[in-house]
Write a structure and sequence with these properties.
Bound molecules: iron/sulfur cluster
Number of domains: 4
Number of strands: 20
């Protein structure tokens, strides 16, 4: 009888795409994949170093697995495993810890699944993580996360990702296109490009520091892949989002008018202390450029509150900057110290209660911005990609410009694209729609 394996993934789209690829490898060894809530012989937890309380979350997930099967073999992989291998290996129940280079070789460690008293660690100096492994994940049958780049050469003072994932490196353009075609042949209609710093695409494509291709080359080539209706850029640094890329997206066949651009702070003083590679004026230009070519574009913003040295004035500068900017929603992160980062040693620490207060203010601003953006789209006609789940009698979906809509559940709509008119915002903050007569693809 086949052994059973279950996966749990924490963190970003990149982690989900890698879990998917590693799971396919393990299934290739004859394991049967089951849900994490089920009994399994092997539990694999793909960890994240950015998640708040990552350590507590990890321990809770390990206990869940132990409750399901106290004899099960538990493996921890991913970013947190790379940063804190001993810490994870000492957690009761953990048998194996694999860092950035070993996570893709999980199948090499599965011949003997008997429990260990202390987790066996196989990780490396992050400098050795200089090779690239491609991956993609097919989430809910409607969209796929396609990894195109890994690692980062930037030195933002609050960030541990370069320590967890290594230098910036990219998939070959040929391999990205092969994966995109594979995804399209599976009937998936939307691909979300993912990586750590995808605007740096092309660097290290052939194992060196040179850029063989640019992000614009990648975008142009992907736009021609047959059968892919939508391409979404998950997140891109403002200084790497070039005018040419914005112009190309505006007239492209498949790229959708949705940009998620990390800002982190609206104060130039704080941006400098974060060692970000732009000042806020560049961000304003990017937003203006996008809105001039795509007035209906959706713009999402990452912002950190409570960074060391952030005074009330600096925070209000960020607040007013975002309030005046034509953006659509915010992802708000409360600054938390991370070991081995420069920011963790900085003085003028902002008290936790002040960080929480600022975070609440920006989350309220995000609700206001999203509502204003949705209201600006009412009455317009868009194409919605319907998802696969019956959510309390409704089917959900997103327009190209990331407006969330819902309609009465109808299984025939799953994974189909339809022209709809956006009518009104309902109590749940989603948009009710009317179908235009033409069904785009049944
Ligand atoms: S760009 Fe900065 S914040 Fe983003 S992964 Fe690189 S170092 Fe971290």
């Amino acid at each position: 009888m086949n052994k059973k394996v279950a996966f749990h993934t924490l963190g970003c789209k990149l982690n989900f795409s890698e879990t998917s690829t590693i799971a396919r490898q393990v299934q290739g060894e004859g394991f049967e994949r089951v849900e994490f809530s089920e009994k399994a012989d092997l539990y694999v937890i793909n960890t994240c170093s950015v998640t708040e309380n990552a350590d507590k979350r990890f321990k809770t997930i390990v206990r869940q697995a132990q409750r399901k099967n106290p004899k099960a073999f538990i493996a921890a992989i991913g970013c947190y495993a790379q940063l804190k291998p001993e810490e994870l290996a000492s957690v009761d129940g953990v048998d194996l810890v694999l860092g950035a280079t070993e996570k893709f070789k999980l199948t090499d460690y599965l011949s003997n699944l008997s429990k260990n008293d202390f987790g066996k660690i196989h990780s490396c100096e992050i400098e050795e993580a200089d090779f690239y492994v491609g991956s993609y994940a097919i989430g809910d049958r409607t969209r796929a996360f396609l990894k195109v780049q890994d690692g980062c050469d930037y030195k933002c003072t609050f960030c541990t990702i370069p320590l967890a994932r290594g230098i910036s490196r990219s998939d070959t353009l040929g391999n990205v296109l092969k994966n995109a075609r594979e995804i399209s042949e599976k009937g998936i209609k939307e691909i979300v490009l993912t990586g750590v710093n995808i605007g740096d695409y092309g660097k290290g494509e052939f194992g060196n520091k040179r850029h063989e291709h640019t992000f614009l080359d990648l975008v142009r080539a992907l736009d021609d892949v047959p059968g892919i209706h939508r391409l979404r850029i998950s997140s891109i640094e403002p200084n790497l989002l070039k005018d040419e890329t914005i112009s190309f997206v505006a007239q492209s066949k498949a790229f959708v008018p949705h940009f998620h651009i990390p800002l982190q702070s609206g104060s130039n003083k704080i941006l400098k202390a974060m060692r970000r590679r732009y000042q806020r004026e560049l961000y304003t230009e990017r937003v203006a450029q996008i809105k001039s070519l795509m007035p209906h574009a959706c713009i999402g913003v990452d912002v950190i509150v409570g960074f060391p040295g952030e005074t009330d004035e600096d925070f209000l500068e960020t607040y007013h900057f975002l309030n005046e900017l034509e953006i659509s929603y915010l992802h708000v992160f409360t600054y938390s110290e991370r070991d081995n980062t420069l920011a963790a040693a900085m003085e003028e620490v902002v008290p936790q209660r002040v960080r929480q207060k600022r975070s609440r203010m920006l989350r309220a601003l995000s609700v206001k911005k999203r509502r204003a953006f949705y209201e600006s789209q009412l009455g317009s006609v868009s194409t919605v990609l319907f998802e696969g789940e019956n959510k309390a009698g409704y089917i959900h979906g997103f327009t190209e410009n990331y407006v969330k809509v819902r309609a009465p559940w109808n299984p025939e709509l799953v994974n189909t694209l339809h022209r709809v008119r956006l009518q009104e915002i309902d109590i749940e903050g989603m948009v009710r729609i009317a179908f235009e007569n033409a069904s785009v693809t049944a």
